[in-house]
Amino acid sequence: MFRYFTAGESHGPELTGIVEGVPAGLQLTEDDIERHLVRRQQGYGRGGRMAFEKDRAIIKSGVRFSKTTGAPIALTMVNLAYEKDKSNWPVVMAKEGDPEGIERITLPRPGHADLVGLQKYRFDDIRPVIERSSARETAMRVACCTVARQFLKTLGVEIGGHVIQIGTAGYPGWEEIRDITDELILNGAEQVYKKSDKSDVRCLDKNLGKLMREEIKLRRKEGSSLGGIYEIIVTGLPAGLGSYVHWDRKLDGLLAQAIMSTQAMKGVEIGLGFDAGKTHGHNVHDEIIFDGSFKRRTNRAGGLEGGMTTGMPLILRGVMKPIPTMLKPLKTADIDTKEEQETRYERSDVCALPRAVVVAESVIAPVLANAILEKFGGDSIDEIIERFNIAPYETKK
Known about the structure:
- By secondary structure, the chain is α+β, with helices and mostly antiparallel strands.
- 32% of the residues lie in helices and 19% in strands.
């Protein structure tokens, strides 16, 4: 079973990750991981921190001659911002010594984990909450999850994401999105991200991309921020992954949890999602046909029925809220004086949605990898491939 942990702070010396449950024999290099780390750093609407972040994960264990050994994989990622500003971060993030004389942060930012994190752990300084709750952690999460993504790719399972809305700019509806993605995914879902990566807002439609950029420019001038909606598509999954038997094994629930565990996410849809509640059953459910194997005439369910995959492409959507850290301040209350003040500005993006697409692509990979391992099993990649390629049930008759 794939499982991963991350450790480290936004401005600490490095991020660390441990990935366990990886079958032996999987081809894996640091370049494989860096490919998606580079993608995570790209996107229109980024702030000044982009100049500091040049992420590369270093494999410390669990890989020999570019293949996994079956042992836990240890990853480290040096924080260049920490290295660059030696006069500041090594002091305020010191692992030993006395905090006396260090500036305390006492103004919690609305929309962040600041206040509730402080209340939970009884800190007298918000900095520990800011450092660990930061989306900077997703750099290591992408690195760890890329290991699972490599596993899926070896089996022919591909993941691709794109932006469908930023602020008020977006596709009119489900059909318009399908018109632009259905042809792409005939050759695998990676075609979606390869095309969307050519846009600095990760939108497949050039005209919509221009509108999204204009919206970002507008909010930047106002000192505000933007969120939006993205879509993730997965191809190559067989029918029957997941379970209808137990609530905690339903694949749709596990996928939703992975998306919602990512910073700033406020909602998940599968297939038609909330639009399914706005129409009647004949416009929602997918008719079943048999053409060599059982298939669906349409895919409004988004590739999941009863907590299990149908064999159709998996379609997920996530909603990201606008970033709470903005140039134009909000009102807050000081934790010491209790007086109302304006929030302090921390360097941040105006819109992080194009980057969040890569994170969302990544975090669902271990969920899907575990569903495959649960059904097919195996400790080495070769035996898993053998079992995974067994013909579907209906074609054996």
